[in-house]
Structure formats: structure tokens, C-alpha cells
Design a protein that fits this description.
Number of helices: 10
Helix content: 10-25%
Shape: globular
Distance between the termini: 53 Å
Strand content: 25-35%
Oligomer: single chain
Mean pLDDT: 95
Number of strands: 30
Structural class: alpha+beta
Largest sheet: 9 strands, mixed
Length: 543
């Protein structure tokens, strides 16, 4: 223990044990094994700090740093607490991180039996680990898992890609049976619904779990030999089940004690040859992003759904260098999904031929958008994140968000009456990525004309996206129709992330107008920008 404790990184472990998030900017997969280590130390030590640290770390990562697939990180680093929409790039969700988060979840479940670890385990297993394997080339897996809307997965090659995630990827797909069954004293817990056979040699118990889940809602468990087992059987009762679970023994209703979000305890005794049937009905629901109220993912039970966007301008997606596609631009014009958000089943309809294929049937002009499980989405552009609105919200958004500029799109910038001096378009050329453009004026200025609604009585707001870690040479004024609005300095030390600044415009500057001119003017010897996005809205919740 003394040797193990010498490896503890106390500058991270102790603050986390006290509930403080000190993860921003840290290499994500450096941190996870530290807390796997202290969880293991807790098994041999009465020091509660180790348990608190491991538990708090898990809670912080899941609540404030986890993306839709169950993975975390962008550029291999943890981001700003609670940030999600700006962590989507082709370097999102390093697969090794999830490999280790599953290990930590398993450790913590065995320490305290908290059901939440199983919820995450199932979610990440299906939506990241299973989704990371190339079905058309055995042994090829993802390193990063691109979540930038309109991008695509990149896979290793059979012989020339030796990334860390190739190594863990060799293990990932041999471990699906690892956490199906647990024992708690003399009771058997069934935690995952994966086809398998169990032989509990100590008890002489043999059973077969058979299911087509997630294609099917039905699970059957055949008690091949009961042996000397006299305990009850407990089946995980997932939160995502719609309505009540159905449990039968040999076709007859079973006596149970059931608590959704915990377990179904079978009260009836069972004997060799009995067949237990469980039916877990699912429905569609939205998993919203942590930092945007109208942005999120569509789920079907525990399964994340993805929308295919074709293969236009898509490069080879099996690569030797994990940065090989860093200059690939995402697909344009990602559809918005518009319909009754509390009744997705009324307008996102399941195929009668394929139980995990869905079609968006109406709303927002998005007729024909197809959705499939993310683990079945391969070798094409896609998205798992959507802008989502009810019909009324969509109308309101159209009225509120009156204009936006596509920075770097020559036609769109010309449409917005671009003018400037000493300004140009540049590529955001960071080590991992070169797939975004920005406009900057060096000791100069640039401006756009944005359309607004002359009858709007509420103040308008500019939403400007910048990079969070610019040098102190980026300092400029923003002017509205020549009126000084504010001075901006971008030297903020927010590493590896974007920032969305919101600047409120006095209502009397816009009232009765149908357009405004927005100017970014550099301070003497400084730069204006770089500006990555520019929007104008009367409601910042609709962007």
C-alpha cells in the first residue's frame, strides 16, 4: 500500500475527493486510471478519501463532461464544466477513455452496488464501444469518435495503425460478457441483457440468457440446472423502460417485487427447466445537451440514434495517422428536427421491417430523415446531435434568430455586405484540427450587415464565437451602425475550446430598423477577431 500511495496524484485526487472539479484542460485518460487506482486502494485501506475521490470523479465526469455516446474529452482533454456543444469535433470521445470509465464503473458497482454505474455501463457499451468497430474490416477500430455534426468515424488500418485505442480496442470487443452477471452474497444479479450462458460452479447453477436485444424488447432466461441454488433472482430494471416491465414464468405472470431504476426481484421459486420471460418496452425520447436547451440527441431506450448524411466529399476513412482527416469539412445544412417533442413516436416512426430503423415523418421540412442506431452507422457522414424544436418553438426561433453569417463562405459573406481593411479568412490550424475558418483583421477592421425585424420591441443580442485561447494581440471594438458597443479582449486562457460571447444591443439602436451594420475594429497594432460565428437574435435561448 505504501508503494501504491506514492503514485497518488494528490493535487488532483484530494480536490476531487472534496467535490471540486479540477479537470479542465487535463489529459482525460491520464486522470481516469488515477481514480481506478484509488478505488482499488480503498479495497485494502480504511481511508474513505480514496472512495470519495473515486466516486466524486465518476459523478463529475458523467454529469459535467460526458457526451451523447457515453465518451468524454475533445483533443484528449477535459473541457469546461458542463460544456457539451462546443466539445464536438472529429477529436471527440477518445475510445480509450470509455474503456477505462467502464472499468471504473465496474469497480465502483462492486464497492457499493449503486445502480447508476450500470446505467452508464450499458449506455457506453452499446453507444461507444460497440460503435467503435468497423464491421467491414475485422480488427479496425476508432481512436477518436467524431461527434461533429456532418462528420464521420475514422478507423484504423489492419496493419499500420498502432494507436492506444487499437490496443484497448483489441480488448473491448472480447469483454461484452464481463459485467452481465454478479452475485451479492447468495443472490444472482442479471445486469446486462446480452445472449450468454452462466455456470455458477459453486452452486451447480446453469442458465441460458437468450435475446435479440436491442432489436427486440423480449429477454428469456432458461434455468438449465438449478443445482443447490436457493436464492432469489434479481433482474436489472432499467430507467428507460416505458410503462411496467412484464415478467412471466413458463408463460404465467410471475410474483415480483419491482423497482424501476433498481431491480426486479423474482419472488416465485424456480426449478430446472423453467423459462423466465421479461419484456421491456421502449419509446423515443430526447437526451438534451448540457449547455443548449434546443440541442440534443434522439434515444430509443438505451440506444442512441444517428442520422445518415451521405458520402459527398468524404475522404478515405481508414487511416494510418489519427490526424489524417483533420482538414475534412463537415457536411453543410444539417437538418433540424421539428415536431411535438413530448410525443416523438407520433412523427418519428419505426419501420415495420427493421425494428431499429426510424423515419422522421414531418416537421420543419425534414421529410425523410432516417435514423438508425449509432453502432450501425459506418462509412458515411452523419450526426447524433440535432437542433430540436416543437412547431411553435420553430416559428418563434425563425422570428427571433433573424440572421447569421457563415464565416468563410464567400457567397454568404458577400450576401451580408462584407467590407473590411487588412482582413482575411484563415484556417483554424490547431495540432488536431484544421476544419474551421475564421475572419481576422490585422490592425484593421471588417463588418457585416445583418437583417432584423423592425417591429421587434425586445433588445437584440449579438452571439459571437471566438477561440478561448487567443494571444493578447486580439483586442478590438464592436460597433453597431457606427455606435461603440464594447471592447473585447480574447486573452482568456480557456484552452482547447470555443467561447460564445453574447453582447446586448440597446433597444433604441435597433427599433424600427430592418438591418444593422456590425463592425469589428482592431485596436492600434492589434487584431480584430478571429470570428468563427456571428448571429443576431432577440432571444439567446434560440440560436
Amino acid at each position: 500500500m505504501q508503494t501504491a500511495e506514492r503514485f497518488n496524484h494528490i493535487n488532483v485526487i484530494y480536490p476531487i475527493a472534496n467535490g471540486e472539479d479540477v479537470l479542465f484542460g487535463r489529459h482525460a485518460n491520464d486522470q481516469i486510471p488515477k481514480f481506478m487506482g484509488v478505488a482499488r486502494e480503498y479495497e485494502f485501506s480504511p481511508n474513505d478519501i480514496y472512495y470519495q475521490a473515486a466516486r466524486n470523479f465518476w459523478n463529475i465526469v458523467i454529469k459535467d463532461h460526458t457526451l451523447a455516446i457515453g465518451g468524454n474529452s475533445c483533443y484528449e482533454r477535459f473541457g469546461v464544466l458542463g460544456e457539451e456543444s462546443k466539445r464536438l469535433d472529429y477529436t471527440s470521445a477518445e475510445t480509450c477513455n470509455t474503456y477505462n470509465m467502464l472499468k471504473l464503473s465496474r469497480q465502483l458497482f462492486m464497492l457499493d452496488g449503486d445502480y447508476k454505474y450500470l446505467n452508464y455501463y450499458e449506455h457506453a457499451l452499446y453507444n461507444h464501444i460497440l460503435a467503435s468497430q468497423d464491421p467491414d474490416m475485422p480488427g479496425c477500430v476508432t481512436y477518436y469518435t467524431s461527434l461533429l455534426p456532418g462528420s464521420f468515424k475514422q478507423y484504423s488500418t489492419p496493419f499500420d495503425s498502432f494507436w492506444c485505442c487499437v490496443g484497448t480496442g483489441m480488448e473491448n470487443h472480447s469483454k461484452y460478457a464481463e459485467s452481465i452477471y454478479f452475485k451479492d452474497n447468495q443472490e444472482l444479479l442479471v445486469n446486462l441483457y446480452i445472449p450468454s450462458r452462466l455456470h455458477w460452479k459453486e452452486k451447480g447453477l446453469k442458465l441460458t440468457l437468450d435475446t435479440y436485444f436491442p432489436e427486440s424488447d423480449t429477454v428469456t432466461v432458461r434455468m438449465d440446472e438449478i443445482g443447490s441454488y436457493t436464492g432469489t433472482l434479481l433482474f436489472r430494471y432499467p430507467d428507460w423502460v416505458s410503462g411496467d416491465a412484464v415478467v412471466r414464468i413458463n408463460g404465467e405472470p410471475a410474483q415480483t417485487e419491482a423497482h424501476k431504476g433498481s431491480y426486479i426481484r423474482l419472488l416465485d421459486s424456480v426449478k430446472s427447466g423453467d423459462v423466465i420471460t421479461l419484456v421491456f418496452t421502449r419509446n423515443l425520447y430526447i437526451d438534451y445537451a448540457k449547455d443548449e436547451p434546443h440541442f440534443g440527441s434522439v434515444m430509443y431506450g438505451p440506444i442512441l440514434l444517428a442520422g445518415g448524411l451521405g458520402t459527398d466529399d468524404m475522404p478515405e476513412d481508414r487511416v494510418i495517422d489519427n490526424r489524417a482527416c483533420r482538414e475534412s469539412l463537415p457536411a453543410k445544412n444539417i437538418p433540424m428536427l421539428v415536431g411535438p417533442l413530448t410525443d416523438l413516436d407520433s412523427w418519428i416512426q419505426c419501420s415495420s421491417q427493421h425494428p431499429l430503423r426510424f423515419t422522421v415523418k414531418n416537421g420543419g421540412g425534414q421529410q425523410g430523415v432516417g435514423l438508425v442506431p449509432y453502432f450501425q452507422m459506418h462509412h458515411q457522414r452523419h450526426t447524433v446531435y440535432w437542433k430540436l424544436y416543437s412547431p411553435d418553438e420553430f416559428v418563434y426561433r425563425t422570428r427571433s434568430l433573424t440572421d447569421e453569417v457563415k464565416i468563410g463562405d464567400e457567397t454568404d459573406e458577400r450576401k451580408h455586405a462584407l467590407q473590411g481593411e487588412n482582413d482575411s479568412i484563415y484556417w483554424h490550424d490547431y495540432f488536431w484540427a484544421k476544419n474551421t475558418r475564421f475572419r481576422m483583421a490585422k490592425d484593421g477592421w471588417f463588418s457585416y450587415t445583418l437583417h432584423i425585424n423592425k417591429t421587434e420591441q425586445k433588445p437584440y443580442h449579438l452571439i459571437c464565437r471566438f477561440w478561448g485561447d487567443e494571444p493578447d494581440t486580439c483586442q478590438f471594438d464592436i460597433l453597431i451602425d457606427g455606435n461603440y458597443l464594447r471592447t473585447v479582449s480574447l486573452n482568456r486562457k480557456l484552452y482547447l475550446t470555443y467561447v460564445d460571447d453574447v453582447y446586448s444591443i440597446p433597444a433604441d439602436w435597433t427599433r424600427g430598423k430592418d438591418k444593422v451594420n456590425v463592425t469589428f475594429r482592431a485596436a492600434q497594432g492589434k487584431n480584430a477577431g478571429g470570428l468563427y460565428e456571428l448571429k443576431i437574435t432577440s432571444d439567446t435561448n434560440y440560436r
